[in-house]
Amino acid sequence: MRVISFLLIFLFYLISCSGNEKLNIKLPFVTILKRASLDLKYPKGFLQMGLMIEKEGKGLLNTEKDFEKIKSIRIINQEKTYVIEKKPFGMKSATEFNGYIRIGDLKQYMFIFSDFSYNEANAPRGVYKFIVEDIHGNLTTRELEFNLDKSSLEGYPKSIKVDIKTMEVSWSPITGATSYRIYVFKGDKGIVEDWSSLVYDTSYTIIPTNKYLLPKDKFDKGKYYLYVEAYNPPFFNLQDREDEIGYFNIE
Question: What is this structure's pTM?
Answer without folding.
Answer: 0.88
